TrEMBL record:
GO terms for biological process: isoleucine biosynthetic process; L-valine biosynthetic process. The keyword Zinc does not apply. Keywords: Amino-acid biosynthesis, Branched-chain amino acid biosynthesis, Transferase. This is Acetolactate synthase small subunit. It comes from Thalassobius vesicularis. GO terms for cellular component: cytosol. Transmembrane segments: none annotated. Catalyzes the conversion of 2 pyruvate molecules into acetolactate in the first common step of the biosynthetic pathway of the branched-amino acids such as leucine, isoleucine, and valine.
Length: 186
């Protein structure tokens, strides 16, 4: 290959192109972060996102090891591959962080969310809300003469679809837990 061919050719042959090839496409990633269960850790993790202008789409936290004082933070975020890599690297540098897993790239995972959805209506709208709840396998956990509170679990997309269908039927309020996720298999 001549010098001219290298100069005009792909930049992947250049000694100056040391960065990996990243895309500018915005991607959604689910991160599982194992941390010490102590005061201030969640604030530090969230502070990392806020200080750098990264967005958190969903956040759940719960203790997973009472004896070892460990908690699991599940974070859904979006960004370019470069931003996601920066987030993971910076999370890994926080002292009480033990593990950072990107469930999106590590293989198949299971994601679920719980939502409570309040719908107000009467007559045909009430009947239609109950019919749709049955189709989506949502449970009526509270009922009055004019409203229902439905409990639904599933993927965030399933919950979005159910809420969208309830809007014209009298959607009043939605409370969501955020995503809980685990990788599949061993």
């Amino acid at each position: 290959m001549s010098a001219l061919q290298i100069k005009k050719g792909s930049s992947k042959h250049s000694a100056y192109n040391l960065r990996p090839n990243f895309s500018d496409v915005i991607e959604k990633h689910t991160l599982a972060v194992i941390v010490d269960n102590e005061a201030g850790v969640l604030a530090r993790v969230i502070g990392l996102f806020g200080a750098r202008g990264y967005n958190i789409d969903s956040l759940t936290v719960a203790e997973i090891d009472h004896a070892g004082h460990r908690s699991r933070i599940t974070i859904c975020t979006t960004g370019t591959p470069q931003v996601i890599e920066q987030i993971k690297a910076q999370l890994g540098r926080i002292v009480p962080v033990h593990e950072v897993h990107d469930l999106t790239v590590e293989g198949p995972s299971v994601e679920r969310e719980l939502a409570l959805i309040k719908v107000q209506g009467d007559g045909e709208k009430r009947v239609e809300a109950l019919r749709l709840a049955d189709i989506f396998r949502a449970n009526a956990v509270d009922s009055t003469l004019t409203s229902f509170v439905f409990e639904i679990t599933g993927t965030p997309e399933k919950i979005d679809a159910f809420a969208d269908l309830m809007r014209p039927l009298g959607l009043v309020e939605v409370a969501r837990t955020g995503v809980a996720a685990l990788s599949r298999g061993l």
